[in-house]
RNA sequence: GGGCCAUUAGCUCAGGUGGUAGAGCACCGGACUUUUAAUCCGGGUGUCCCGGGUUCGAGUCCCGGAUGGCUCACCA
């Protein structure tokens, strides 16, 4: 990434060619070009022609106009081969002196890897069997001034791949495939939900109060209003206002922003899908979760048995439902009796050498023990249910045990994939929960909720019993594209700013 | 933020114990009208991440810093 364009000799030679084109009266950053085919369509149509008319008859019959980037070039004296890449793939070009003429062929040889051209020609099949465009004419549509990464090894440097994703996408076809799959996943989600009567909505990203999740927000400022705002950490509380409004079935796919660490599983901005359904509960949400995830997997992978990082995951519903306390006993040997109250829970944690704040509640202990001992073991899809009320400030209490909630999270490959519950619609209980969160905040928990009076007002008008669900789309895409890092499924993952090369920091 | 590792040509990478920087691709010049990682002949194009230090001499050793990867902590 040399900011000074003309220092690099490779760039120098391309700039020289640029001048040559200009001298010939050809502006090297051209106009629109009318294509007749994409590379893949041209190949397909030619194959059909061969099948119907026979290979000899088909040759040089099909006229095409294609456009794309030159990604390989093999000169053979008075004839040259190249590959042209467009969004559908690559097709070979064959340019000869015979068709192009003296000047045309000279120009053809002046092309550099990376140049973007439009070609017109006729298809034929070479001796080696590759469908190829015999180029009759071409025009330079955009001159490339920088050399592309290596053609055989591609671009490996992870930092360059993320920082200059366009290069990654040009030279690494499997990367392009990941993002095509990502797009298909999101399209499938929309299709699935709209077919079931859900309304897609868009709620604000700038929140006066960051709510709907336990997370640290980014802060920003509105100048004209002279008002601090937060980038949303979840759309939840706005979507539930829409349930109060009577929209009944809504969903939103969008970005959340969390001011927290970056890791293989975390990007500061990430995509979530949240849905809310009036008159439903968390059992309905589990059903919709497994059905949605299975349907999308089937659509993009063609199977419910997918490979992830060498492990087979079977997404076929129904997935088992296991209450959290039961999971703790089954996977960690911790019985519910050992977690009877705050005191007992803390001493159990101490015995298991799990560090917790001295005033940790029973719910926090349960959550901590679960994450530590159970989560990594949940490889095949499973719903963990009945989360402690202390860590679920927006979920409805269980009828049978008010210390727990009607909440679930599906786990796959040891990862939390989603979060859903029967929504708390009792405004009085909700106020108490917020107050408990405020108390936690005062004790230094920066991720605890803020008081949201406006949301409470909405609840006070009456919200129907509602099931809600949030899915982390990026992690889902990781699973379905067998990607190890969240950065491999985000086009431009967050990267630190490069240090300016001038030595601005004081020596010693 | 802590720990470990990495950073050498446009790209992919080599460079025991300190002694004038290398290969493949790409690029430049030449040959070649069905090649495909084309081939053949000739050419190395460099801020060895940055800044100090040790040394007669540093890509290599020491210190500090930057960026990235993995990992731990926090989170989805």
CATH fold node name of the largest domain = BirA Bifunctional Protein, domain 2
CATH superfamily of the largest domain: Bira Bifunctional Protein, Domain 2
User: How far apart lie the N and C ends?
Assistant: 28 Å
Give unreliable regions as ranges.
501-508
Strand percentage lies at 15-25%
What is the number of helical segments per DSSP (H or I, 4+ residues)?
A: 15
Instruction: Please provide the count of β strands.
Output: 19
SS class: alpha+beta
Reported CATH architecture of the largest domain: 2-Layer Sandwich
Number of domains: 3
Structure characteristics:
alpha+beta; OB fold (Dihydrolipoamide Acetyltransferase, E2P); about 35% helix; five-stranded mixed beta barrel; RNA-binding; single chain; 3 domains; about 500 residues; disordered C terminus; nine-stranded mixed beta sheet; BirA Bifunctional Protein, domain 2
Brief characterization of the structure:
The protein is α+β, with helices and mostly antiparallel strands and 508 residues long. The protein is built from 15 helices and 19 strands.
């Amino acid at each position: 990434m040399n900011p000074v364009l003309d220092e690099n000799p490779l760039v120098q030679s391309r700039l020289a060619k640029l001048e040559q084109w200009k001298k010939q009266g050809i502006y090297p950053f051209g106009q629109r070009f009318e294509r007749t085919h994409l590379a893949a369509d041209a190949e397909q149509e030619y194959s059909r022609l061969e099948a119907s008319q026979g290979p000899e008859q088909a040759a040089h019959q099909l006229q095409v106009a294609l456009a794309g980037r030159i990604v390989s070039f093999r000169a053979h004296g008075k004839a040259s081969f190249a590959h042209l890449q467009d969004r559908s793939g690559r097709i070979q070009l064959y340019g000869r002196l015979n068709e192009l003429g003296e000047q045309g062929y000279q120009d053809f040889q002046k092309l550099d890897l990376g140049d973007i051209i439009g070609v017109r020609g006729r298809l034929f099949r070479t001796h080696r069997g590759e469908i190829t465009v015999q180029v009759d004419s071409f025009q330079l549509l955009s001159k490339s001034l920088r050399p592309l990464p290596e053609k055989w090894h591609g671009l490996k440097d992870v930092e360059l791949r993320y920082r200059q994703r366009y290069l990654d996408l040009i030279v690494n076809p499997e990367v392009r495939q990941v993002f095509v799959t990502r797009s298909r996943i999101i399209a499938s989600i929309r299709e699935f939900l709209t077919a079931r009567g859900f309304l897609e909505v868009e709620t604000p990203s700038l929140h006066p109060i960051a709510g709907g999740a336990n997370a640290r927000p980014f802060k920003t400022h509105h100048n004209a209003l002279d008002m601090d705002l937060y980038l949303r950490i979840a759309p939840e509380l706005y979507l539930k206002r829409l349930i109060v409004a009577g929209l009944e079935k809504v969903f939103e796919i969008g970005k959340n922003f969390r001011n927290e660490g970056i890791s293989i599983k975390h990007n500061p901005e990430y995509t979530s899908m949240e849905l809310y359904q009036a008159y439903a509960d968390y059992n309905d949400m589990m059903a919709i979760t497994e059905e949605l995830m299975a349907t999308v997997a089937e659509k993009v992978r063609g199977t419910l048995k997918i490979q992830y990082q060498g492990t087979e995951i079977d997404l076929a519903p129904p997935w088992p439902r296991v209450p959290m306390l039961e999971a703790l006993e089954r996977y960690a040997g911790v019985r519910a009796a050992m977690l009877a109250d705050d005191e007992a829970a803390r001493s159990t944690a101490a015995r298991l050498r799990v560090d917790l704040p001295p005033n940790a509640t029973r719910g926090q202990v349960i959550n901590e023990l679960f994450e530590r001992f159970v989560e990594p073991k949940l490889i095949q899809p499973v719903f963990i249910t009945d989360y402690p009320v202390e860590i679920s400030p927006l979920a409805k209490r269980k009828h049978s045990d008010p210390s727990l909630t009607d909440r679930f999270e599906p786990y796959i490959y040891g990862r939390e994939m989603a979060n859903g519950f029967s929504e708390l619609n009792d405004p009085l209980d909700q106020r108490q929960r917020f107050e408990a969160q405020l108390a936690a905040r005062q004790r230094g928990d920066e991720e605890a909720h803020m008081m949201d009076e406006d949301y409470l007002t909405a609840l006070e008008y009456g919200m129907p019993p509602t099931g809600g669900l949030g899915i982390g789309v990026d992690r889902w895409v990781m699973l379905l594209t067998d990607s190890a890092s969240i950065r491999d499924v985000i086009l431009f993952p967050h990267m630190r700013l490069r240090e300016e090369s001038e030595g601005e920091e004081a020596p010693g």
